[in-house]
Specification:
This protein has five helices and no strands. With 95 residues, it is mainly α. 5% of the residues are buried.
Length: 95
């Protein structure tokens, strides 16, 4: 990771935020989905398969509304951020 900036330099250019948004969005979504999985357990798997099966038949927002997330609601983003913080705290304990 020491030379990550050289391999993917475009991700570190501050005036290209539009490029990095998709990565941040996807990561927070995955963290939020993981939180739901931890709460629901096996029931989540079928819901997630349906979510994935939807493909590009709707907008991202519509798909996520069907899944129970509203990307316009700050609580959605907080859910992902909380999980990111938990992972960070785990990592700090390891090092």
């Amino acid at each position: 990771m020491e030379y990550e900036w050289a391999r993917f330099g475009h991700t570190f250019i501050p005036n290209r935020r539009y490029y990095n948004f998709s990565y941040s969005f996807a990561q927070l979504l995955v963290f939020a989905l993981y939180e739901v999985y931890k709460q629901e357990g096996p029931v989540f798997v079928d819901r997630f398969k349906d979510f994935l099966a939807g493909g590009n038949t709707k907008s991202v927002r519509e798909h996520l509304l069907d899944f129970g997330f509203d990307i316009a609601d700050p609580k959605f983003w907080e859910l992902g951020a909380k999980q990111a913080n938990r992972f960070l705290e785990e990592f700090k304990k390891l090092i």
